[in-house]
Amino acid sequence: EDPLRLFTRVDLAIVCFSIGCPLALAAVHNYLGTPAALPIKMLFLVTSVFSGLLIGCQFPLANEIYRGSDTSLSKTAGLLYASDLLGGWFGGILGAVVLLPVLGLVGTGITVALLKLTSFRVITTRHHRHAS
After folding, report:
1. Quick check: pTM over 0.85?
2. Are 51 and 17 within 8 A, CB to CB?
3. d(CA 6, CA 17)
4. Long-range CB contacts for residues 85-89, cutoff 8 Å, separation at least 24
5. Measured distance CA(86)–CA(91) in Å, rounded
6. pLDDT tens digits, residue range 65-75?
7. In whole angstroms, what is the distance from residue 63 CA to residue 59 CA?
């Protein structure tokens, strides 16, 4: 399958996850002190793995898409890895210091979803412009 198409699908999955996960956690919050807490905690671990898989899927796809522009493998890997590290650092700082304390979990999830929708729009618009 086309890497760009798969990348945009993963982008949309991250948008859905960013909205759905905080809402689901808010919905089960009241049950954390009950006997039903163990399955909920297990679900939290599964959710963590799933979020890592979604984000981890985008890195090799981005490499493939960028490399398709006739760039050397080492330059592509270096540029995208540096961008990934920088984005992770900014996301960690902004998320932990600004977004979560100010907006809460649901507000942060919605903010992340809006940011991903913005990147989705930029990627699809840019691709359609270059394809024409």
Report:
1. no
2. yes
3. 16
4. none
5. 8
6. 887 666 677 88
7. 6
